[in-house]
């Protein structure tokens, strides 16, 4: 399969007086998997449906390989789409569901059989092709929906929360399967998800949405290590980054009376200091008391009380045994610190 380049120029969408997507410029390169990540109502699914042609934009253009497709009907856009609900016909078996888009195109029966058998074998559902959706597992339904999208041999694959209906164990294997499939076929893909672990694990690049606009469009590594603002810093990462609001002066950060030494790099004044829970060490000079310890398997998440309503989250190795209320010291020196100005924008490198 050949993947299309997708370009969005000034793309926006209104429903009545409500602007759900502010003007957006974004490119997806051929063969790339891009994730649209964000909370409910942020504009990510609206953007996907605009690309699919299900919604019409209020302004701006959608281009596939340099050709504007705003006026093209969804069936003429050479896309495959997997919906959150899978949208399989319950009265048809999996073979008939997968073959459905080919029959609409009046493709010869022999070719239909060849394509369905090929994609079913590739996705590991050949042995259940003649069962109905209600007779197979959720993972097999998900693969059947993916097979139906791919059997047309589209140049663009759109995935709307394709893993949300699977249990946690199956979800992990399914995301690996989708990524392998996408890389093997070289098909350009756009994935919508609210789950940052899915986005970071599957995507070449991630567009983080909030309030109808993209906050940052970058690789998973850059999102994690260099978030562009406090929204991205708090949304990407599990557990999320600690964000402390206070005042920067030369070599110091004042957090409601608690002074934290910081390296140069902030221009001074009000702002936010960010530090990830896994980058904080125990045994330093910042006094705290243990509130709650949450075992997470290989790690323990500590909620530490610094007094006057100030708390920090810290990740420690499994086996850390501390009693609630225990006195602990924290060490931030040497930890990667993130500086943000009063508006929440990243400062420095």
Task: Characterise the protein shown here.
The chain is α+β, with helices and mostly antiparallel strands. Helix content is 24%, strand content 36%. It has eight helices and 20 strands. The protein has a six-stranded mixed β-sheet, with helices on both faces. Strands 13-12-11-14-19-20 form a six-stranded antiparallel β-sheet. A four-stranded antiparallel β-sheet has the order 2-1-4-5, covered by helices on one side. Helix 2 runs parallel beside helix 4 (138-150) and helix 3 crosses helix 4. The model has no long low-confidence stretch (mean pLDDT 93).
Output the structural class. alpha+beta
Largest sheet: 6 strands, mixed
Anisotropy-based shape: elongated
**SSE succession:** EEEHEEEHHHEHEHEEHHEEEEEEEEEE
What's the end-to-end separation, in Å?
40 Å
| Spatial order of strands in the largest sheet | 6-7-8-3-9-10
Helix content: 10-25%
The proportion of strand residues reads 35-45%
Low-confidence stretches: none
* Beta strand count: 20
Radius of gyration, taken over Cα atoms and rounded to an integer in Å: 24 Å
Query: What does the average pLDDT come to?
Result: 93
How large is the count of helical segments?
A: 8
